[in-house]
Amino acid sequence: MTLSVPTGRAVDLRAQPVDEILDRVERSLQTRFDRDSVVRKRRSLGARTDRDTWVRIERRLLNKIGDQGWNGTERAARLMGISQPAWQGCVVWLDADEPAMWRADETELLLGGPIGTAVLSEDPQLSDAWWRAFNASLDALAAQSTSRVATPDTEPITQDLVTASIRGTFPGAFDTTVEQWLPAHADLNWANMTTPTFCLFDWEDWGNAPRGLDSASLWASSLAVPALADRVWRERHADFASRDGELMTLFVCSKILGPDAHSQDPRLEPARQMVEQTVQELHSD
Question: What's the whole-number average pLDDT of the chain?
Fold first, then answer.
């Protein structure tokens, strides 16, 4: 029997008071936050502590927490060969008023500053050394093994989701069956990596996903800067050249071109061009 989980209201942590949440985490982790360092996002908070660590706090509805649990950052600590901030510990609690859970993970400080927002409008001018470290970490991640399922946008990625996303936006006669499922970060964008030293953070949603999800996601985040999108494509060419990489290209383009498309999004036209090319290639496979 499948138990139903009540749904709660969405909360935007950029808009609501958060002092009580910060106070609770301070007491639980026995530390103090630098309140001037607090970063507020829609469903997460982050702040520097007085022991020179970083704490990320997230609220997630219970119906968005599957059977595998909600411990991506903790589980990522065992991954080898990846540049990421070392995990220190956590505190988790159930919301007293809503069907939601809170989680605060403490890690070492980042090795550099975040590159920018999730979608860039300017070239960050990354060094060749940065790209080498980036490739080494993504290759090391894909070579490992996990029972976790990736949850991009907090939704478990499944064959049905891939097919529905692609078919719902790009109907056609080509096969959408994924052949390779490999560990992926599942939230790879320019807000979750640092420069000048490469470091990849925010591991809440990592797990097995179709090959090429991370590469395609970063490429899609770069489309407003053509030279940067081209660099991502060249660096991760092996992913994009695979059949699964082609499917993931369509998967990420479905988010740009689908029902929620924004008419002023500068990524629309390059995404359309890539979809046309990719669909032709899939038909010829």
Answer: 93
From the CB of residue 149, how many other CB atoms can be counted at a distance below 10 Å? 18
What contacts 193, CB < 8 A, 6 or more positions away? 114, 115, 134, 199, 200, 201
pTM beyond 0.85: yes
Listing DSSP states for 91-117 in one string gives EEEE-SSSSEEEEEEEEEPPSSEE-SS
Tokens 């607090």 — which residue? Answer: 38
d(CA 46, CA 55): 6
- CA of residue 185 relative to chain centroid, distance: 6
CA distance 165 to 182: 19
Inform me whether the pLDDT recorded for 6 exceeds 50. Answer: no
Residue 38, amino acid: V
Whether pLDDT at 4 is above 50: no
How many Å apart are CA 106 and CA 109, to the nearest integer? 9
Q: Please tell me the number of Cα atoms within 13 Å of 7 on its side-chain side.
A: 2
CA gap 113, 197 in Å, rounded = 9
Looking at the chain, list the stretches that DSSP marks H as alpha helix, in order from N- to C-terminal side: 19-29, 72-76, 128-142, 159-169, 213-220, 226-235, 237-241, 243-257, 268-284
Whether the Cβ atoms of residue 55 and residue 23 lie closer than 8 Å to each other: no
Q: Which of 235, 109, 90, 249 is nearest to 169 (CA)?
A: 249
Q: CA geometry: angle at 131 spanning 126 and 137, to 5°?
A: 135
